[in-house]
Structures are given as structure tokens and as C-alpha cells.
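Hello,

Our lab assistant flagged a job as stuck in the queue for most of the afternoon. It eventually completed. Since we weren't sure the result was trustworthy after the delay, we are filing this so someone can double-check. Below is the sequence as submitted and the structure that was eventually returned. Let us know if re-running is recommended.
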Amino acid sequence: MLSTVHCALGSHHSELLLMSELNLCVIPGDGVGREVIPCAVEVLQRVLPHLSIQEANAGWECFTRTGTALPDTTVATIHACGAALFGAVSSPSKKVEGYRSPIVQMRQRFDLYANLRPTRDFGFSIADFRLQTSSASSEPQSQSQSQSKIQNLKSKIDLLIVRENTQGLYTGREYARGDEAVAERVITRAASERIARVAFELANARPRKQVTIVHKANILPLTDGTFRDAARAVGANYPDVKINEVLVDTAAMLLASKPQQFDVIVTTNLFGDILSDVASVWGGGMGVAPALNLGANVAIAEPVHGSAPDIAGKGIANPVGAILSAALLLRYHWHMPAQADRIEHAVYTAIEQGHRTADLGGTTTMQEMTNKVLGLL
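-- returned structure --
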């Protein structure tokens, strides 16, 4: 279990890890994944000089070339390494016989039941960019008024979405019944309890000690009712952690308008996927958003942004999401918080100093951003 997921190991143990050889399976995947993952690996190797890299294939391009989106050799490499860094996958919008998303397969194959997606205000967000652009074009507010509005909106945003990662609608149980298409949503009490335990352990180690259970039990009383009741039962074992409940539609509205009120959110698979994308606006957008798929023995880090085929090959993709995902691997799987802090500090400092890729309204290229982070390290 991940009951100690938040624990930082002693400095002596971290030093031993730094001096020993750690293994990482690197899976660039499709689109911009092939560009940003090497950047993240370069940053990881700066803080982990003995990191051993094993490359592997997965994704849509792999499927079109070999007939499988997740080869057995890739599964074996992930298992041997115990950790992986995955780029992105381009999935077809319609059903293709024999194809299934490799990242979903990996989550279920290795029982990566906890998906951690943090959002942290580091001085610049998509809201900044849009409010500043709007203010510049319409001029009804002074620059100081615009900045004040931005700061009021996003003061002290530091939230973590803990998403159940193996069940819900992502089990792939879809079928046709005449002219009716049916998808089965699977929620079990056991899976709900273990993801809630991760959320409460993490919240218990954070300053605010607050968990918000997000569900839709008023419409889905059996599935979401099971999830909510299991999460509340787990929460009863954490008397120092405050428990809130919010319906998913209200949670989406609050994440878009008052995100600073959230600390740790625990929710089901699909809801967590959607809500984390909404929350990412306050942390710089999809190009900045990191994620970690965490299990008992294996962890796979992946940026949230996807394959972005419209900008693939242009050298302008934002490498920050991949780099921060690598930092999550350091923090929660290898238990090296000091090294994770170093990488995160370098990334945030680079952006605060004005180094911004096109998605953040800047002109910094992908490699320039990577070089800046490396320089700060």
C-alpha cells in the first residue's frame, strides 16, 4: 500500500540513492512526446548522474508499425526498471480494431491505481496571459488593477488532485446492443478505499490538512455512493484532516473561479481527468501540468498535455510538464524530495524570470527552456 507515500527518507538514504544506479524506462510515445521526454531525461540526469536509461516503444505510431500499441518487450522493461517516463499517445477518435490506449493498459497492467496531478501557482498562469491580453486590447482597467484582479483570483493556489486510476469508465467495457451503445462504469469499495487512503495520507502531511471528496452520488447513487462512503470511512481514521464533499459539476465551477479553497481532491477516474485539466489553467496550462501514475511497486510519470500533433516537430513544445513529471517521480517513487525540490525550483524560477514558451505567450523554444532549467540547476 501507499500509506507512506508522503514520507521523505533520510538524507543519508537519499545520498546512497544518488550514488547508486537507478533504472528508468523511457517511452517517448507520439508527437511532442518524442521531443519533450529527452529534455526531461537530460534534467533528471543532471540531478541523478548515475541514472540508467532503457528506451522502449509504445503508442499509436508503434501500433501502426507493429500491430500493438504496447509491446511485451516494453512491459518487460517497465517491470525490470520499476519506473518509467512516458511522453504522449495519439489515439484515434473512432474505434480501431486491436487498438487500446497504451497508457491505460500500463495503468491496469501494473495496478497504478493512484494518479497524482498537482497544480501550483508560481507567479504566472493562463489566466494572467488572457487577462493581460484582454486588458491591453480594451483598456478599461489600469495595469495595477488588472494585476490585482489576477492576484485575488489565484492567491495561494497549491492543490493536488488524487485520481483513482484503474476503474470507472476507463475499464474499456463498452459494447453495442442494437442501436444502443453502452459503457459500463466500474467502482469497487476496495479501490475506493485505497485511493482515499493515499489522499488522506498526503493531506495529513500538508499544512492545510483538507480533503475534498468529489462525486455525483445524487445521480449515480450506487457507483458514486460507494466511492463517497468508502472515502468517508477512510477519512474517519484521520481526525486531523478536514473532510469536504462537493458534487463534480460544482467542483468544476469552483476550480474555474475559486481554486485557492482546495487542498487535496480525491475523485474517480473520469472526474479526476477532467477536473485536473480545469485546474491546470491556474498552474500555467496543459504544457506545464505534470502527472504521476503510482502503484505499490511501479511508477510511470507522464505530462498531461498529450501528443499535440499540430506543433510536433517544430521545437516549440513546452518541456515543463515532462520535467515536472520527472520531479514527481523523484518525490513520490524514489523518495528523493530534495532533488525534486531542486528541479521544481529551477523550473519556476525560469518562468518567473520571463522564459516562456509559445503556450505561455512567449518566444522561448523548447531547447532554450530546457537549457535555462539546466543552467539554474
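-- support follow-up --
The delay was a queue issue, not a problem with the job. The result is valid. DSSP finds 14 helices and twelve strands in the chain. The CA atoms of residues 55 and 164 lie 28 Å apart.
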